[in-house]
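A note from the maintainers: we've had questions about how concatenated examples are separated. There is no special marker in the raw files; a new sequence line simply starts the next protein. For clarity in this README we add a label.
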Amino acid sequence: MGYGIYGLTFNTLRGGNKARLPQFKNKHGEPAHSKADGSDWSDAQWLQAVVGELMNQVVKGLKRDGYTKANKSWLLRQALHAFDTTKLPPPENY
């Protein structure tokens, strides 16, 4: 899969993420995955993890100084709008 931007491809990202899988731990300090390639997680679990990480970044941004209440509200609405799955094309287009 291509989509290279400045030499970075999805395959490069995928390889880096697979290499990092053993580092991830659950709340008990145990490995988060029972399979080395992460295939023990369902698509729903992966989506939840990705959305959680992205929203964490948004919240960290909101906590920074310099944002008014109106700016924070706008930033949060923009982040949530990014997850509007009703605008995704049907699966057969992937």
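[label: protein 2]
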Amino acid sequence: MRNYKNEYKKFQSSKTDKQNRAIRNKNRRLLMKKGLVRKGDNKDIDHRDGNPKNNNLSNLKVVSRSYNRSKNRIEFFLKRVINIILTHNLFRRVWLLRNESLQERNLVAKAEFFQ
């Protein structure tokens, strides 16, 4: 059985966690007043720049709960794929340069041998 008291003590009772939760609730209430969200709509407030401390209205947008909670995994996956592609291209360039220099050395050695 889930122990909510322990979870609160460990993860939600620190001063900074309480302040962050108060800021999240304030942003939600602000967007509720503007009519962008309502209670029970399964929507989350997302920060466009990814900085939870930047609470300007231009930085806030309403997204589905599932998108907002999987966004970090999607971004991590995309960064990893990009990193793999860039690393592959770098190794490919180094390999090509190495092979070109080896071929040039072989040609020079052959030319010197026949002279």
